[in-house]
């Protein structure tokens, strides 16, 4: 049975989807835009946007008593791969040991004209 996950510590969904859902001990976290849930602001640089997207993921996990270490896989969507190194520097701060599997892809555009969006799959166990 699936369980919908929602917290006000991450941005509300801007469409017909859930922030996250749990099914069979797996937590599927929808792509997180770099929106600060407190004031709705979006950082202007790739490092700030990466940090905010990952903080949103962290807050969703924390709402379920889970940590970043529970993440198995992430997908990073970027509108400009020339900023990959800067994104990767911040990303690495959140996964200091045993980082999850990851795919990074360049896309033509992202909602709200942001530079990065990150989704994750985690486990409860």
- Structural class designation: alpha+beta
Order of helices and strands: EEEHEHEE
- Report the β-strand fraction as a percent range: 25-35%
CATH topology: 60s Ribosomal Protein L30, Chain: A
The name of the CATH superfamily reads RutC-like
Helix content: 10-25%
- Counting structural domains, the number is 1
SSE blueprint:
Blueprint: E1 3-5, E2 20-23, E3 26-32, H1 46-62, E4 71-78, H2 84-94, E5 101-106, E6 116-123
Parallel strand pairs: 4-5
Antiparallel strand pairs: 1-2, 2-3, 3-6, 4-6
Keyword list:
125 residues; six-stranded mixed β-sheet; alpha+beta; 22% helix; 60s Ribosomal Protein L30, Chain: A; single chain
Briefly characterize the structure.
With 125 residues, this protein is α+β, with helices and mostly antiparallel strands. The chain is built from two helices and six strands, in the order E-E-E-H-E-H-E-E.
How would you characterize the overall build of this protein?
By secondary structure, this protein is an alpha+beta fold. The protein has a single domain (3-123), classed as 2-Layer Sandwich (60s Ribosomal Protein L30, Chain: A). The chain has helices spanning 46-62, 84-94, and strands at 3-5, 20-23, 26-32, 71-78, 101-106, 116-123. Strand 4 (71-78), helix 2 and strand 5 form a beta-alpha-beta unit. The two termini are 17 Å apart.
